[in-house]
Design a protein that fits this description.
alpha+beta, globular, 2 domains, 405 residues, eight-stranded antiparallel sheet, disordered C terminus, 30% strand, 8 helices, five-stranded antiparallel sheet, Beta-galactosidase, Chain A, domain 5
């Protein structure tokens, strides 16, 4: 869904092309000294603290990083505007479709109500269409001629990012059917959620700021005006921003936008996925399930000492090494009286094992086939020795069956 970049380039471009959040707020009352109207981008690089600078502005937001076994969360506490933003990511477990879940929570920490307009999502969303990495790097502008945004219904809530045909220099034309999707809604544990519209035209958000540094289009209009006017998604790299026209939060109240990003074999699958993930309490239950899965994988090394940090380190080290070599799963004639080594009808499959996938080790191809127990492509399914450490170049199989290209 995003072009792969090695670490040195990823550090430079992620603040612009990665996940972004734009908030316009209006305070309803003068009960506090907070600014009446404001436009902010939580987690923007331009508003980060520089603790090495003695003249650094102490009023800039405070930012905190939380890392779990199957989740990562960042928090920004903005005291000037009375807004705290939390963003959490986790991999959707135990499903037959691929999904990365992003939960963005906005909390009003001011002493009076605030009315918010929100855009939250990816600034760039690459379509599905084969292994495009080399083409994106060498002829990315030309490649955009194949790009397009299709819709699974007549709303803006189910965009489907795919290529028209396979981009190859061949007389044979291959129609592309699979694509990427973005489904978003305001979380509700009591009833099924209504899907949010998606802003897929980056020009509506950034205007003529082609560097994507500032959302000049949003500055010149409102979220509602963007949604009420035509968007264009053909022959360009699109975006995928979940859009909230207006919502009012009382002091202490919060809302959470859940966004589900993934790949589907056909556009007809997207409404089915949407109805499932937007069901009451679904995201909350899957978040707990993702944590439980990690606890099950590390149960054999559960440690209880007077030092919780040591206990957690043992658990994390076991998990890290298991993701390298894999968890042995017995498949086949498991009821045989023979030992597993002797019985040819029994196979041991090391699920969850993976290539390391580090951005700093960009020489390793990182391929996930769209299937259960997917293996690395045959040309790489061999031992590969890294200059820094000997590792198995095997499979990547995390929490739940993946279906990514």
């Amino acid at each position: 869904m995003l072009e792969f970049n090695a670490a040195n380039k990823a550090y430079q471009v992620t603040p612009f092309v990665g996940f972004r959040t734009f908030v316009r707020g209006t305070r309803q009352g003068a009960a506090s000294s907070l600014s009446g109207s404001f436009q902010v981008e939580p987690f923007s690089a331009g508003n980060a603290r520089n603790l090495l600078d003695p003249q650094d502005d102490p009023n800039k937001p405070k930012r905190i990083l939380y890392v779990g076994t199957n989740e990562v969360e960042i928090q920004e506490i903005d005291g000037v505007h009375g807004l705290t933003t939390n963003v959490k990511y986790f991999i959707l477990p135990q499903e037959d479709f691929a999904a990365l879940v992003r939960q963005s929570t906005f909390t009003n920490t001011g002493s009076d109500s605030v009315e918010l307009e929100i855009l939250d999502g990816l600034a760039k969303m690459e379509p599905s269409g084969g292994r495009l990495d080399g083409m994106l790097k060498n002829m990315g502008r030309t490649l955009e001629g194949w790009f397009g945004v299709h819709h699974a219904d007549d709303s803006l809530s189910l965009p489907f990012y795919k290529m028209s045909t396979e981009p190859s220099d061949s007389a044979k034309v291959t129609i592309e059917e699979h694509g990427h999707y973005c489904i978003a809604f305001i979380e509700n544990n009591d009833e099924d959620a209504e899907l949010l519209p998606i802003v897929f035209d980056p020009d509506k958000v950034f205007g003529k700021a082609t560097s994507l540094q500032h959302p000049n289009g949003l500055y010149a209009s409102s979220v509602g005006e963007i949604l009420d006017n035509p968007q264009h998604g053909d022959a360009k790299t699109s975006s995928s921003f979940a859009a909230v026209r207006k919502i009012t939060l009382k002091p202490g109240e919060n809302i959470t936008i859940a966004s589900v990003y993934g790949r589907a074999d056909h556009i007809d699958e997207v409404p089915i996925i949407a109805s499932k993930v937007s069901a009451a309490g679904y995201i909350h239950s899957k978040s707990k399930e993702a944590r439980t899965l990690m606890d099950k994988l590390t149960a054999s090394v559960e440690t209880n000492t007077v030092n919780p940090l040591f206990d957690g380190t043992v658990k994390q080290m076991f998990l890290d090494n298991s993701l390298r070599g894999g968890m042995p799963t017995v498949m086949g004639n498991v009821d045989s009286d023979l030992t597993y080594d002797e019985d040819p009808s029994v196979k041991i499959f090391h699920s969850f094992s993976r290539i390391h996938g580090d951005l700093e080790r960009d020489y390793n191809a990182f391929v996930i086939d769209p299937s259960f127990f997917s293996q690395v492509s045959s040309s790489f399914s061999r031992l590969f020795h890294s200059s820094s450490a000997g590792r198995f170049l095997t499979v990547f199989f995390l929490a739940g069956p993946w279906k990514l290209p």
